């Protein structure tokens, strides 16, 4: 993402919203919040694709007043989220995210968590 201007922050997260990695300098609570929000957005987009027979989610983009938020599937069970300034070239950013995922996506896999049962269950 270094080749793309105006990127504020990036987070790699699991499908269920746990952060795996983040941009240098991000506060832990911001990392956790962004990961949770992006997991929700991606889940909603996936639900729309399923409900309306529109296929898999390739990318979710949220336009805010002062930023863009992009979420794209990365490795198996993970998502890459990037928050950028509004001045960013959205086509270039989307392209760079896709290239990054193609190059290193298999290294971005996230194991699926299973429920933990107590001894009394």
TrEMBL record:
<feature type="domain" description="Roadblock/LAMTOR2">
    <location>
        <begin position="1"/>
        <end position="84"/>
    </location>
</feature>
<dbReference type="Pfam" id="PF03259">
    <property type="entry name" value="Robl_LC7"/>
</dbReference>
<dbReference type="InterPro" id="IPR004942">
    <property type="entry name" value="Roadblock/LAMTOR2_dom"/>
</dbReference>
<protein>
    <submittedName>
        <fullName>Dynein regulation protein LC7</fullName>
    </submittedName>
</protein>
<dbReference type="InterPro" id="IPR053141">
    <property type="entry name" value="Mycobact_SerProt_Inhib_Rv3364c"/>
</dbReference>
């Amino acid at each position: 993402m270094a080749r793309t201007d105006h990127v504020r922050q990036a987070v790699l997260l699991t499908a269920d919203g746990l952060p795996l990695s983040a941009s240098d300098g991000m506060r832990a609570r911001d990392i956790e919040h962004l990961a949770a929000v992006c997991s929700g957005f991606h889940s909603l987009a996936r639900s729309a694709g399923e409900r309306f027979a529109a296929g898999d989610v390739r990318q979710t983009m949220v336009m805010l007043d002062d930023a863009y938020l992009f979420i794209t599937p990365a490795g198996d069970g993970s998502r890459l989220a990037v928050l950028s300034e509004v001045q960013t070239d959205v086509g270039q950013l989307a392209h760079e995210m896709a290239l990054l995922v193609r190059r290193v996506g298999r290294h971005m896999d996230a194991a699926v968590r299973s429920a933990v049962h107590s001894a009394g269950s």
